[in-house]
Amino acid sequence: MRSIDSPRPVMDVKDILLWRDVKVTAIVFVSGFVLLICLTQFSVVSVLTNIALVCLAPMLALRLLLTARSAFLRTEFEHPLKAYLSKDIEVSKDKADFVGEKVSGFAVAMSTKLRALFLVDDLADSLKLLIALYVISYVAQWFSGITLTFIAFIGAFTIPKIYDMYGTEINSCLGKIKSAVEDATGKITSKVPKGTKNPADKETQEENDNDKKVS
């Protein structure tokens, strides 16, 4: 049994999306959903400024109230959130280097992958990208950006949980779909004529064949 005084374990994004703690996930989900609804009715600037006002106004009122109370009682004012104000906000050099290394590595990997896809290094992968882009462009004609954001937000809180519960069945279906896609792309690429070989490579291959016959 967990002690009352023991620190509560810190939840990460994965725990929140998998509804490990229903109360925390519900708060995050409702807050994000309300924010998206506000964005459908008002501009981004209006939503951000109103959120800042809602956060600032109570703190300002509290500060004025405590200042007036200290002046009335002729006592020295002490900020109620002094413990939070005294904390240093800093990022260690090791952590900054680690994050920078991860970000730069990800950027290089993505750039290399996109270059290979758009310059058609692998015909099958480029065909898959072409199909995916066509599907996305077709979907974008039917849904606005905020609607797609709603779908993505709700999917982030439902799809991981469904996959966590029915992962075996979903993997089986995805395997069948992947096999069908690979078969279709394989048939398409097999019908595409391949480039002619370099004459020097052809002569080398003939010499190798003659050597094999002699041996």
From TrEMBL:
Taken from the UniProt entry, a GO cellular component term is: endoplasmic reticulum membrane
- Region span, Disordered: 189-215
What Pfam families does this protein map onto? Reticulon (PF02453)
Note the superkingdom of the native organism: Eukaryota
Domain Reticulon positions: 13-215
Annotated membrane topology? Multi-pass membrane protein
| Biased amino acid composition, Basic and acidic residues | 199-215
Its transmembrane ranges are 21-42, 48-66, 142-159
Instruction: Give the InterPro entries listed for this entry.
Output: Reticulon, RTN1-4
Question: Which key words tag this protein in UniProt?
Answer: Endoplasmic reticulum, Membrane, Transmembrane, Transmembrane helix
The reply to whether Endoplasmic reticulum figures as a keyword in the UniProt entry is: yes
Q: Does the keyword Transmembrane helix apply?
A: yes
Compartment(s) where it occurs, according to its Swiss-Prot or TrEMBL record: Endoplasmic reticulum membrane
Protein name according to UniProt? Reticulon-like protein
Its source organism is Stylophora pistillata
